[in-house]
Amino acid sequence: MSELNFYSPEEVKPLYGEIVPVYQEAFKIEPWNSATKCVDAQSPVRCKDGYSPLETGELCVTCEACPIRPAFEYDELASTFDTLAESRPTTWYLERSGGKLAVAMLAWKAVSETITAEKYDKVPEMKDWVQGKVGGKPIGWLDEVFANRLVRSEGNLDNFVEACTGMATRLDIVRLAFRTINPKMLSVAERFGERTQIFEPKTGAPDWRSFVVIDVEGVKQ
What is the Cα–Cα distance from 134 to 215, expressed in whole angstroms? Predict the structure, then answer.
């Protein structure tokens, strides 16, 4: 039996000790492969986004060094979550199975200029492109979606529609957007039917990640 709950930033903060380890483990595997920070400061492009698939202490045959720091450190993640909460309307969705955290989602409200400045600072072509797709009004940015596969190996996105519509209601927005390299996220976004627009990398969006827009107005939770 799953437990679906929505949280304010204040309510979720005491749960960081549970959320952060799940986040760290979730992004170590495919398709992200982000286990540690790349140590090759001379050429960070060797590891996409500066993250390495190697575990700490393993030797990289490319730069001949060993990663020593996890890709996402506890204090770093907690600070990021706090900064979001302090700077804009933010909401969380947590889903439990057997009393343990199975799925977490984080969304916040902002205009397209904020999104592109923070998420596409290295892809300036996205600034006008994103505004053209989402308009000038505030939207919900689905920033994080991650699961604990030790708790549940499959079915972690079964409640995606309910989660998105619930967060949209709490943020008082009618449109959600997100970027992804995970094919499963594209599949679940299609559950919204004609309300979903998916722009593939390079051919549909000037970025290496897919961009998704979902109109959630009127969707029943």
Answer: 10
DSSP structural state of residue 102: E
Which residues have C-beta within 8 Å of that of residue 149, sequence separation ≥ 6? 26, 29, 156
Token pair of 142, please? 């689905």
pTM value?
Answer: 0.91
Helices within the chain (DSSP H only): 9-12, 16-26, 74-87, 112-119, 126-134, 160-171, 183-189
Provide block-wise average pLDDT over 10 residues at a time, the chain (221 residues).
Answer: 82 97 94 84 62 79 77 94 98 95 97 97 95 96 97 95 96 97 96 96 93 87 58
Which domains can be identified in the chain, with CATH numbers?
2-8+88-215 (3.40.630.30)
Q: CA 106, CA 35: separation in Å to the nearest integer?
A: 21
